[in-house]
């Protein structure tokens, strides 16, 4: 997979890096919006009220940093929306790390381990700057817990990518051994 950027035309190079830039743009845009602009509580209330899920979520109460999530106070849709927001953090940074690592692997000759470390640093740095950015967005705030959650998404993405790359390499080596290539 270490092709280096030699021989890659502009179109191919763009195809390799555009996914990472799209993910970064989505993260930035969503971080610029207020919670009210992103709220889906109304739609969620149609799904969760009068269901066993609604009853379960109504009874939940937990802390996330200085924020208290309370199903009785926020309603089941408030709890579910909070959980979906945090899941979105995780998924965004999973996708960011995979797309960045893919770009680095296809355009450099770095070893997998070095590319993973570089990607981890870049992805977590982006998470930190994103939280910094949220301090200045209207009706938003920075939460260190979100950086931890983002980092978990990054590490999971890197683990999945790394395991798949190793598996692909082993399969290729076994093909050479069995076919005598």
UniProtKB/TrEMBL annotation:
Superkingdom per UniProt: Bacteria
The VanZ-like domain, residue ranges: 17-163
InterPro entries given in the database record: Phosphotransbutyrylase, VanZ-like
Keyword Transmembrane helix: yes
Transmembrane parts of this sequence: 12-32, 109-127, 147-166
Keywords: Membrane, Transmembrane, Transmembrane helix
NCBIfam families given in the database record: vanZ_1
Name used for this protein in its record: VanZ family protein
